[in-house]
């Protein structure tokens, strides 16, 4: 029998992940674009020119670029990221839209409604609610972002190492996370933070990182264990790849998605947690400006001056919602099951 | 004719456009007959089965044309409620993955019995007795004890028997089996195929066997419909096809099967890849991979030509193919 | 007969079964591989066939040192690979590579094809100078029948058959002597299976590779193997040259396995005798005493429950083609595959 020539399977399954996804599972995965190049006639294809077009229009598509393509088309993502962008901008330059001083208060104007130049009115201390709400964003965003960074770094490093090395490390870490999960967050905050006298944001951030990392570490551990079972990890090991290489090059890129998703959603809840702690008087303390402090201060006068409570609460709710929505959108875009 | 599918069309909406998963498929099954629908992944064979059963995911799928005549009635015109009655009592389906088709928190007996309590209004006790009877029928040893066990306590082969028991519970006229043995080991495959063949004889059921395995087909089928890119490219009695295929795709498939009885180191391979359903080639869908393709194949979709009274092939050059 | 390049003796892999969270207690073990002897000769293909759960995949992972055996030795170039570690092990790995079953999970979805096929050079920098690597990767893609221009694409842009070619190119990169292929085509469509099998056969000729080819199906193995070993529940039950196994099988399990392979020819249906085994493969955590196959064997007698049959050439059958290693007390030739007239 003459040797069968090997036609280069020049065709590319250009349909990408999306093309196959919408069909039933048994049919999925093989919705390939059919061979178009000359190789289909059985002889080896002459290599196409240097500018052979890619199916996706130019650049090679990675899962990240696909995710980005999905995100841009998702209205939930667009709205939430616009809100977040606005929040970030005003926390960097609050004076751009609020020229006043959040600490300049005039008791004579206490509880007054809105007036010219003071659209949100005054609170119980006679401070301008608009200015304080704008400045409060800075604290919330700072606490949210820094706490999330801390949690994500600490949690994913510990979780990834436990998942990767397993054995006693894993057993110890799992028990430790169990213990941290057993601590009621608000009670823990009341106890731990009441002994702190500093008025800066750091004790609050530290507390959130302390209680938040086990959540991420569990996610990271699970994601690492899942990624580790894939054959490409085995293939790298069979090639003689070192543990750091396997972990950084093969496991981490494939395990990072759930960590990002959960972190984004957690960011919103950390902002809410900061407000809660500040409301209870153990988080940030005056003269810091925080929505939690303002909500706490305004609640006794809620009948006379509801606006003083409404604006910071509204800002808090919108902010938390925006981060949670963002997290949801990111999850939809990154979830491999939907890919 | 028990089941008569005529010119069935099914489309899927995907990101990359409309996928014509089933593109004018016709076939028929008589009572007591086994029809094998043979195709590779992406050929539309499973989608055809789902459309006939009425379990297509809509959306993204949509039946856009054709008729599914079952015992003379067009199922596509029935209301969902009537359709549901046909499923189970009239026709039943056996799936590839028995583990995910069975409910893990209910015992096997409960799931079998449910068929009788729901469809036949039997008491729980009678239904349990029927469940044991059924398990005996599909040759599950120690049925009386095992009826109380959960699906995960059964091996792969035994689970597939449970699925078959469930399918025959209401004595349907037609069974559609979608790759029933693909997930099983070779020695267990033979058991399950034998069981299906026996039950079919016993109850004079029609059997539609959806498969990619030419060997299984040769062992049990009476007729074969070969599918490629959403179309039936050849349909014929099983002996005729194996003796002399009338379509180059069928010929290519037969030649590429590794065989025990033919020693040779080089396997014949069909070059290239099956097409994407969102981008099926113009003319004959097989022409880019076909060794016999000529100009007409690139422009004209071949109609099914009648090779004999029982046989049809959708190829412009079926005569040449038939003569080798 | 060519020299032996890989020798496996008494290979065991047991996984302990434990109970309890805090105080782990061993309550038994899964005997995935339980005393396997294999010899691979230079330039040949050794087919290892068995049903799921027979331990063939575990054996493959032991051969490429992805796992350490509980007992036994794997000798390559006079060294017991199972005792190596660090640099010495890494050097051996250059020469024993693996091709995986599932082309969808064996390629890292976050890496381009160029990075995947080039990774062996990153791990073994001595194999190719840095400036050469890109060119070598293109060559490799060409060798396995892929378009070298697709070097920057991601795995999900390829079909199953093409992905398997990428996996083969990665296995080939370091010019190994031995490739262990764990069911390399069982996840592929029939028409694509043949392409990949033919590719592997061609590469073997071109590069003088030795293959350990693992499969669950005797028919695929027939086309590529020089010798075949049949595995059941962690042990080899029969082994020999391919004509010995296919035309003169003496172990009842091999005979059943052969007869269970559907023949794509309805005329052969009538001619062949079908052996249909009852029941399923027992769990490797509860292996039957004596001969492991006795619970499904139609020949089983009392002695089968008491004495473990050893893998050896049966005394009575010496000399003829049926005279090859078979682990059965009642080994007897039985022709299952009908020759095609």
TrEMBL record, chain A:
Classification via CDD domains: TM_PBP2
Stretch forming the signal peptide: none
All residue ranges annotated as the ABC transmembrane type-1 domain in the record: 137-327
Places the protein is found: Cell membrane
Membrane topology per record: Multi-pass membrane protein
Top-rank lineage group of the source organism: Bacteria
PROSITE patterns: ABC_TM1
Record-given protein name: Transporter substrate-binding protein
Annotated organism of origin: Streptomyces zinciresistens K42
GO CC, any one term: plasma membrane
InterPro entries: BP-dependent_transpt_permease, MetI-like, MetI-like_sf, OppC_N
Keywords: Cell membrane, Membrane, Transmembrane, Transmembrane helix, Transport
Region (Disordered): 1-61
From TrEMBL, chain B:
Keyword Chaperone carried by entry: no
A cellular component term, taken from the record's GO annotations: plasma membrane
GO biological process: peptide transport
Highest taxon above the source species: Bacteria
Signal peptide region: none
MF (Gene Ontology): ATP binding; ATP hydrolysis activity
Protein name in the entry: Peptide ABC transporter ATP-binding protein
A UniProt-annotated Pfam family: oligo_HPY
Cross-referenced PANTHER family: DIPEPTIDE TRANSPORT ATP-BINDING PROTEIN DPPD, OLIGOPEPTIDE TRANSPORT ATP-BINDING PROTEIN APPD
Alphabetical list of PROSITE patterns matching this protein: ABC_TRANSPORTER_1 (PS00211), ABC_TRANSPORTER_2 (PS50893)
Keyword set, alphabetical order: ATP-binding, Cell membrane, Membrane, Nucleotide-binding, Transport
Membrane protein topology class: Peripheral membrane protein
Transmembrane stretches, start-end: none
Boundaries of every ABC transporter domain copy: 5-254
Protein family per UniProt: Belongs to the ABC transporter superfamily.
Lineage: Bacteria, Bacillati, Actinomycetota, Actinomycetes, Kitasatosporales
Subcellular location: Cell membrane
From TrEMBL, chain C:
Keyword field: ATP-binding, Nucleotide-binding, Transport
ABC transporter domain segment(s): 6-258
Record-level GO BP terms: peptide transport; transmembrane transport
Listed GO MF terms: ATP binding; ATP hydrolysis activity
Family listed: Belongs to the ABC transporter superfamily.
PANTHER family: D,D-DIPEPTIDE TRANSPORT ATP-BINDING PROTEIN DDPF-RELATED (PTHR43776:SF7), TRANSPORT ATP-BINDING PROTEIN (PTHR43776)
UniProt protein name: Peptide transport system ATP-binding protein
Organismal lineage: Bacteria, Bacillati, Actinomycetota, Actinomycetes, Kitasatosporales
